[in-house]
Amino acid sequence: MFDFQTIEQETENIILKEKGSRFIGFAYGVMSEAEIKYKLHQLRKIHPKATHHCYAFRLGINGENYRTNDDGEPSGSAGLPIYNQLLAHQITNVLLVVIRYYGGTKLGVGGLVKAYKETAKNTLENSKIITKELESKIVLRFKFSQQNLIFTVLNKYEAKITSFHANDICTIEADFKTSKKESIADELSEMLLEFNIS
Predict the structure, then answer these.
(1) Whose CA is closest to 25, among 119, 130, 89?
(2) Which of 121, 116, 136 is nearest to 188 (CA)?
(3) Please, which residues have CB within 8 angstroms of residue 87's CB and are 6 or more apart in sequence?
(4) Do 127 and 154 fall within a single domain?
(5) What is the total count of domains within the chain?
(6) Tens of pLDDT along 79-95?
(7) How far apart (Å, rounded) are the C-alpha atoms in residues 92 and 169?
(8) Stretch 130-151: mean pLDDT, rounded?
(9) Alpha helices in the chain (DSSP H)
(10) 99: part of which helix (H) or strand (E)?
């Protein structure tokens, strides 16, 4: 299994109003916890006066790395309903955030669950869900005279070159589909090349 479902691009500012409170939904495609921390930090800078920044995320091909956060709302009333929408839409590598501006009227736990769930659901319904193939990274070191050979192999496996340093010994970094890992490794091994796949 080398593919997973995620969102194509970020979705922001999906608003739900409930008894004076404003709930604002955001969805981001993410690949790491560092990226999640950065996105949450940015949202706190944009919405410093918001009462709550509640969120959930799933990472990993089977969503095995996940977390929910109620950010001061009653336990289970915000993070969990948001997380359940990630499960319902069967997506991973997504951070889903709902920011609340309190409007003066308490909603009760049931009201909160409903508002956070609806905002999360509407946010994902405004996102395009796509299937992505898992990618791996390769770092290759080779003689300058071999570069045409290397480019031919990388093109064959539709690898995307992310950096290239040309010297007597060249270094290339590229991303390629994980499903092609064994084939590309076999072919490069036969050419006695120095490479590292992660």
Answers:
(1) 119
(2) 136
(3) 58, 63
(4) no
(5) 2
(6) 999 999 999 999 999 99
(7) 39
(8) 88
(9) 33-46, 79-88, 108-125, 147-156, 181-190
(10) strand 94-101
